[in-house]
Write a structure and sequence with these properties.
Layout lengths: L4 H12 L6 E9 L2 E8 L2 E8 L6 E5 L11 H10 L3 E6 L6 E9 L5 E9 L6 E5 L5 E4 L36 H8 L6 H6 L7 H10 L13 H19 L6 E5 L2 E6 L10 H8 L6 E5 L3 H21 L1 H27 L3 H14 L9 E6 L4 E6 L6 H45 L3 H13 L19 E4 L5 E4 L3 H11 L5 E5 L7 E3 L8 H13 L9 E7 L20 E5 L7 E3 L2
Antiparallel strand pairs: 1-2, 2-3, 3-4, 5-6, 6-7, 7-8, 8-9, 10-11, 10-12, 13-14, 15-16, 15-21, 16-18, 17-18, 17-19, 19-20
């Protein structure tokens, strides 16, 4: 995620063109670390949302309202007391930092005009919203930071506000000269990308990598690996990007991987999509796994990105307990499987002991008393071998000793073969549940997964645990040729789709040799176009454990040839005749319908 100084500069530019001189009509604090301002000005009414969340800090214009608590928190009451009905007179970003200052004029209790400053610091876990008077003294903040919490900077009422000490030894990217670039950046004994983002305020690793990509330079090599001409070329690409900031030439966008947002920027990120490599990539018959969606404003980018990202973040938080249960069970079964395989390998010498016993029976009649070995012809291999003997036992007892070892290992082998197969099946089952957790997007999707874990004893079912009502439904896609494609989100849905929903002539798809969703294409008893097979294969690849792979092999066949073994776990199938295709799991062009 690149909420860096360049994105902030785009945001400040947008705010200056929309809410500058607007009046603050409402102030709300819907969450502990979040504020929502309602503003009215010459350009109309706006809502300004901001958050000091440690995981997802943000600030953007929005049309969405959020309910507020019945009793306003203290920080909200302080803001209402001082700047309710105030007017935003200045919005600026200091030193290209991830900080926005809002200067606000208001009337005090005596009717005199005063100025206060609201400072929004969007700096990851150090994010904060700080309210100061005209002398730069802190009135209050949404998060209090004492000297016990930070030895570098206190953020408490009555303290003087100081900028975070992040820019002291860094250059302003909008003011750097070529000499400074060469001396301060290119002289660092680190990779080129790191040299760039550690030398300037406002530049994230994503932007540093993008600058290297635009210059056709590998950002992971050391700075001293570049020639003088290459360093000059890199500097020119750096300047061309900063010129876009100076001239306010922004291109707000979100980069998606499949349906999941992975990054955003105020510039085109050519290292993900587009640029000079796109034609070569396409000419090679490959498709990009990333797609870029452009927006009219950076606020729209931030709102859409955080709304989408919150879905993934929230569901991952909700599934932490389930992931821990599955992970623990997987670790335990994998260790057990390794031990069982080792023990199984130890039984491989059982036949040797059987042969030893037989050979002693055959040739041991002439053994001298106290002999320590017998040299005999192995009539199975026609080779001479030496058989160790217990000198305290006669030939018959030595032979019986080897037969006893053989029989013990044989029994162990027979028992372990079944146990190892059972453990392997449990691992495959748990891996499929783990993949289902990766696919889940809503709390309803987790209900069936929890139910499956209860059914198979991984979670103890309490008396109060009633069978949950199923609300989650499979993903429903429409192919480019108008055919309906369904994707199971978990093992129960896979079972339902394959053996109850699909008919014999529908087509079934699954990633080869790895956990993943069952994908069903409703054929309507028609011959499917080639493009439908390709699109269904992409879905089978994307909704599998291998979704990050560049290429995945997909098995597909008609549903009537898919069988379910008796007593197997839900979603487990076998098939013996199938077709295969190799795809790149990019589903960005496919249409997801409402379930």
């Amino acid at each position: 995620m690149a909420l860096d100084g360049f994105v902030i500069s785009n945001l400040v530019y947008e705010l200056n063109n929309t809410i500058l001189n607007a009046k603050i009509s409402k102030i709300a604090q819907p969450e502990n670390d979040e504020l929502l301002f309602t503003l009215k000005g010459a350009n109309g009414q706006f809502r300004l949302a901001m958050s000091a969340s440690a995981s997802l800090p943000f600030l953007y214009l929005t049309e969405t309202n959020k309910p507020s608590p019945l009793t306003a928190p203290n920080f909200c009451m302080v803001l209402r007391k001082h700047i309710a009905n105030g007017r935003i007179t200045r919005i600026y970003q200091p030193h290209m930092e991830r900080i926005i200052h809002f200067e606000i004029e208001h009337l005090d209790e005596l009717g005199d005009l005063r100025t206060k400053t609201l400072i929004v610091e969007l700096m990851g876990k150090h994010s904060n919203i700080i309210f100061c008077n005209s002398d730069g003294m802190i009135i209050d903040s949404i998060k209090h930071v004492s000297s016990m919490m930070s030895s570098l900077r206190e953020v408490l009422p009555g303290r003087a506000y100081v900028l975070p000490a992040t820019q002291e030894d860094r250059l302003n990217p909008l003011e750097v000269t070529e000499d400074a670039f060469m001396v301060s950046v290119m002289a660092k004994p680190v990779t080129i990308t790191k040299a760039i983002y550690t030398s300037f305020t406002g530049i994230s690793p994503v932007v540093a990598s993008e600058i290297c990509h635009r210059a056709s330079i590998d950002g992971d090599v050391p700075t001293d690996a570049l020639s003088a001409d290459e360093k000059k070329h890199l500097f020119h690409n750096f300047i061309w990007l900063t010129d876009d900031v100076k001239n306010h030439n922004y291109s707000p966008n979100i980069v998606n991987h499949g349906k999941e947002p992975v990054d955003f920027s105020c510039f085109r990120l050519t290292e993900y999509v587009g640029g000079a490599d796109a034609a070569a990539h396409a000419a090679g018959g490959l498709e990009f796994s990333y797609s870029m969606q452009e927006y009219d404003s950076i606020s729209a980018v931030l709102e859409h990105y955080y709304a989408s990202k919150n879905v993934y973040t929230r569901i991952r938080q909700k599934s932490v307990d389930l992931r821990k249960i599955v992970g623990t069970a997987l670790d335990r079964n994998r260790k057990k499987y390794q031990l069982q395989e080792k023990q199984l390998k130890d039984t491989e010498k059982r036949d040797k002991y059987k042969v030893y016993g037989e050979l002693i029976h055959t040739y041991g009649y002439g053994l001298a008393e106290g002999a320590k070995e017998l040299e005999a012809l192995n009539y199975y291999t026609n080779e001479m071998i030496k058989i160790p003997l217990d000198p305290t036992l006669d030939a018959k007892a030595n032979a019986q000793k080897y037969f006893d070892k053989y029989n013990k290992l044989k029994r162990t082998y027979e028992a372990l073969t079944d146990l190892t197969e059972e453990t392997r099946a449990q691992i495959e089952h748990l891996e499929s549940i783990s993949t289902s957790l990766d696919i889940a997007l809503t709390e309803d999707d987790l209900v069936q997964i929890r139910e499956e874990l209860m059914e198979y004893g991984y979670i103890k079912r309490k008396r109060s645990d009633k069978k949950a009502k199923v609300k989650s439904k499979p993903f429903h896609y429409l192919s480019s040729d108008g055919y309906h494609i369904y994707v199971g989100k978990n093992n129960y849905q896979n079972e339902e789709l394959t053996f109850k929903f699909a008919t014999g002539n529908d087509w079934w798809f699954h990633a080869k040799g790895m956990p993943g969703s069952h994908v069903i294409v409703k054929s309507n008893n028609e011959e499917l176009p080639d493009r439908v097979f390709e699109e269904a294969g992409k879905l089978a690849g994307y909704y599998s454990k291998g979704r990050e792979n560049d290429k995945i092999e997909i098995d597909y066949l008609q549903k009537k040839n898919v069988k379910k073994p008796n007593g197997s776990a839900p979603g487990f199938v076998v098939y013996y005749t199938n077709y295969s295709l190799t795809i790149h799991p990019d589903i960005s062009e496919l249409t997801l319908l409402e379930s």
